[in-house]
Write a structure and sequence with these properties.
The chain is mostly helical. It has three helices and no strands.
Length: 81
C-alpha cells in the first residue's frame, strides 16, 4: 500500500476513534494479503477486531467511568441485628 493511502487511512481511523486500526493497519494488511482476503472480508475482520478491543477496554474502564463502585455497598444475605 502506498504511504500516502496508508497515512490517509490512519488519519481517518484516528478521527473516527478507531485507534486500534490506526495502530495496527500494516499488520492487518499483511495478514489479509497472506490469507487472500477480499475487500469485504478485510473490512469485516478489521471492524470485528476493533469491536473486540473496545469490548475489552469496556470491562476494564466502565466502573470507573460510570462513577459507580464495582463492589456492593452491603453484602447480600447479611442482616444487621
Amino acid at each position: 500500500m502506498s504511504d500516502l493511502r496508508s497515512a490517509r487511512i490512519r488519519a481517518t481511523a484516528a478521527e473516527l476513534g478507531l485507534t486500534h486500526l490506526a495502530e495496527a493497519l500494516d499488520e492487518h494488511i499483511r495478514q489479509a494479503t497472506e490469507a487472500g482476503m477480499d475487500h469485504l472480508d478485510l473490512i469485516g475482520w478489521v471492524l470485528s477486531e476493533e469491536l473486540a478491543v473496545r469490548r475489552g477496554r469496556g470491562f476494564a474502564y466502565s466502573p470507573r467511568l460510570s462513577g459507580l463502585s464495582h463492589r456492593r455497598a452491603s453484602p447480600r444475605g447479611k442482616r444487621e441485628a
